[in-house]
Every structure is written in C-alpha cells, then in structure tokens.
Amino acid sequence: MGKMLKRLGAGIREYKVPSILAPVYVTLEVVMEVIIPLLMAKMIDEGINKGDMKYIIIIGIILLVSSLASLFFGVMAGNKAAEASAGFAKNLRKDMYYNVQNYSFSNIDKFSTASIVTRLTTDVTNVQNAYQMIIRMAVRAPIMMIVCFCVSISINAKLALIFAGVIPLLAIGLAFISFKVHPVFKRVFKTYDKLNNVVQENLRGIRVVKSFVREDYEINKFENISQSIYKDFSWAEKTLAFNMPLMQFSMYACMLLISWFGAKLIVAGGNDAALGLSTGELVSFIQYSMMILMSLMIVSMIFVMVIMSRASAERIVEILEEKSDIKNPENPVYDVKDGSITFENVNFAYRSDADKLCLNNINIDIASGETVGIIGGTGSSKTTLVSLIPRLYDVTEGSVKIGGKDVREYDIEALREQVSVVLQKNELFSGTIFENLRWGNENATDEECIAMAKLAQADDFIQKFPDKYNTYIEQGGTNVSGGQKQRICIARALLKKPKILILDDSTSAVDTKTDSLIRKAFREEIPDTTKIIIAQRISSVQDADKIIVMDDGKISAVGNHQELLAGSSIYREVYESQMKGGSDNE
C-alpha cells in the first residue's frame, strides 16, 4: 500500500503548492465555522436574554465577518483542491501514456487496448475525485469533528458523552457497508474493460458487422455487458444507500438525547447555575453535534470513495510499474554496418512458462542486399521470425545478428531506424497522405515522398484523388482500399531509407501485376537494401535470391525457386495448388 501511494504521489509534482494550500484553507474555514456557534451562544445568553442591543450588534458584526471569512476560505480551498486534483490526474495520464510508449510488444501483450483506455480514463477520474476529497474533505471532517467534540466537552462534559455511544454504532455500520462494497467495485472496473473492448471491436469492425447483418448480435453483446455493470453498480449503490438512513438515525438519536438531557440541565440550571445549562449553550451544543455527525458522514463518504478508487489506483500503478522487457545495453552501438542478418541457434517463446517454442533451432545467413522470401502455412511463425530482427521481441535462446553484431548490442532507436517493417496489419493515421508518409521520415521533402510513392506503385492512384497527396485519410484508413493502404505503408517504410526492409504479407491486397512491378522497382532502385518478403503467393517470392519454407516454427527448407520445387514437398504442394487455381499467372 505504501509503495502504491509513493508511486502515485510522484504524479503530484508541480501541484504540491495547491495540494498544501487546500488543507490550509480548509483548516481556516473550519476555525471560522467553529467560532460561529460560540458567538451565537453568547448573543443569546448575553445579548438577547439580557436585552443588550449594543452587544447583539457587535456580536452580529463579528458573526457576519466570520461567515464571510468562512465562505472565502471555503471557496479558496475548493479552488486549490480542484487545481491540484486536475493537475494530478493530468500527470498520471501523461506518465501512463509515456510509459506505454516505451513498452515492448511483450509488455503490450499483457494489457488489452480496452483495459489501457479504461485505466487512462475511468480509473484516473476515480483517483482524481478521491484525491480532491482527501486534500479537502478528509482534512475538514477530522479537524471539524475533533474541535467540535473538544468544544462540546468544554460546554458540558456529561452531555458530550452522548457522542461516545452513537459514534461507535455509526462507525461499525459504515465499516460494514464499505467492506461489502469494495469487492463489487473491483469487479465493476474489470467489466468496464470488457465493455470498452466490445465497443472498440464493434466500431473497428462495423463494416463486417453490417455486411453480415450482425447488428442485433452486437447490440445483444453490448446489452449483456451493460446489464452486468448495471447489476453490480445498482447493488453497490443500494448498499451505500444505507449510509443515509444510518446517518439520519444517528443524528436524530443525538438530537433527541441532547434535547432531552439538555432540557433537564436547563431546568436544573434554574435551581443551581453550576449544575445547569443555558439556552445559548444548548443551541450551540446542538449545532456542534450536527457538525460532528456531518463530519462523520463526510468521513464515511471519503472512506467509500477511497475504497472505490483503491481498485483504480492499483490498476494505474500496474501500468506505471510495468517496465519494458527490452532495454538498451550500457554502451550501445549506434552504427549499423550493413543489412546482413544471421540467426544462430534461435529458440523463441512468447512467455517464459510456455509449453512449446514458437521458433525452434533457427539458423539462417542472409547477405546484405539479398532478397529473401519466406513462405509457410498459417501459424508457422513467419511473422514471429521477422519480429526478432528489429528487436520487437528478444530471443529466448541463441542470437540474432545484424551487420555482424547481436541486435541486443545496438541502441534500440538506431537499430529500428535501419530496419523498416511493413506489418501484416497495415495502420494509417488520421491526416493527409503526406503526413502519413512522413511517419517514415518527418523531414522528408514532398519530392522524396512522391519518389517513394512511385517506387511503391502508389503514385498513380494518389494522383487521381482531387487533393492528391493532401487527401485526408480517415482514422484507420477507412476511405482507401486495402491495396491502396498497403502501398502507402510500403512508401512510408521506404522513406526511412533502411538497410533492411521487411514486408510481412504486405502485398496480399494488391493484384499480381502491381505486386510484380513493386518487386521489380525494389530490384532496380534499392539493390543494396536487404529485402525480406513474407507472402502467401509463390509469385511474390519465386524470383528471390533464397526462399525460406517455414513449418510449425521450424525451417523446413531453404533454396531458390527451382531447388525448392525439386526438394521441398511443402513448397511444391503450395506451388501446384496455386498454379492449378491460376494464382501464379501475372
């Protein structure tokens, strides 16, 4: 718990001053509020009962000043608490987002996108609200309760004992409610992750949903998750609702007991002033009792809020404490000599406790400037193999070398600058085509962007758009076709001018003629770049310098097109099935 609070506390930073000022203003507000009942008691006893108008006016002016001062300090406390909590939340989101950017792929695999979004939004908001309550109300309530109780004892110690009987009863009831509610809130936040996941999945796949007329199914799935959240929240809120009747019972019980015994003391005071209680003291005592009980109510609200936000705080700290599995060495190498690649006895599994290796005993030598094709069935670990080259994952055993050095010796940024990957899942971002292309090189000129687009066979269709390269791409590239998206992504990768270019099934959506033109452009325009092409079509890799056939995480065969037709049954089977279907004709 202490470690969690320390980690969260680091997010306060530049908002330490308002975080300190808020409790100071709250304390001054409490002082003013506590003075008011005492002044009222004096006004009744010394002014009204004795008919002293001058005294009443003086006390009335002091009361007015005290009330205005209390209002001022209250406003300032609220202002500083809001500033501190909003700033704290801003820093938490910033720290979480920055840390996520440093995650390796293996770190990202631990958290779903929906879970990260929930933690950045709902969970941070819960912690923000709790923090605001803590630096304001959690200071106000205990101070108010202690001061009022002490003043009540000074007025009449016997009458103050009423609180000693009611407060434990109230505290036990509130503790029980909080104990029952906390597990429900923890469960609700996990359900929020599922809700966000359903919404995200539905919106991203809305075209598929509509094309298969599955709207009713998606609506039903959303309603089921919403109903689950509704049931948990409604149960929690119904349980929390007992706070108010319990509080009111305690307040009314105190009022009745104070009024009953207070009246007796006032009557007794008529006979012996030393044993009795004045009317003004009874009025102030009732006000103090109200303040004490309201403070208890606030404490209960804070307690519930803290319990609810504790689950959120734990989820936030999980994101903040997660460290990237892939780190720079102490003395990294910044210069990548060339695009040669060597796999030496490489084994790999996504999890250390995995029963089966994804890659088993991989040994490959790729010369700089070579074109290498990789082919194999679904699940044969083709993508996993190339993910080790830019160090998106680290090998479990063995080593991957680029330019004669282990990739773990390089500075991560310098390595990835020289290894350009067009992933199997193409992603475009909202913005113009020029802006998307410059993800590859932010300083690229318009001419360089157009040159790389021509190389990727993207210039022809871009020129047909009304705004050409200033055409706005919607989020996810929904306003361009799959083949157009792939070619823009290839052009973006080429702008990095890498020593190694990896195309992970990145021409699957383009026709065979365009695919052929892209490969031809690669041979002629970037002969010194090592090109690794993962493909399903034999035609995409048949003219490569060497072709690697993958099967169940192992290398089944290596050779050129003719050698594999003669010596690899897997390659020959794929080739014959595609030839029979006409897929290999250009």
What do these coordinates show?
It is a single chain. With 586 residues, this protein is of the alpha/beta class. It folds into 2 domains: 2-321, Up-down Bundle (ABC transporter transmembrane region fold), CATH 1.20.1560.10; 341-424 and 499-581, P-loop containing nucleotide triphosphate hydrolases (Rossmann fold). The chain has helices spanning 2-9, 16-48, 53-101, 105-108, 113-155, 157-204, 206-211, 215-240, 243-271, 279-321, 382-387, 412-418, 433-437, 446-455, 459-463, 482-494, 512-525, 561-567, 569-581, and strands at residues 341-348, 359-366, 371-376, 397-402, 405-406, 419-422, 431-432, 472-473, 500-504, 530-534, 546-551, 554-559. The chain has a 6-stranded mixed β-sheet with strand order 6-9-10-3-11-12. A 4-stranded antiparallel β-sheet has the order 2-1-4-5, with no helix packed on it. Strands 7-8 form a two-stranded antiparallel sheet. Helix 6 runs antiparallel to helix 9 and helix 6 (157-204) packs parallel to helix 10 (279-321). The radius of gyration is 36 Å and the shape is elongated. It starts with a helix and ends in a 5-residue tail after the last helix. The model is unreliable at 270-275 (pLDDT under 50).
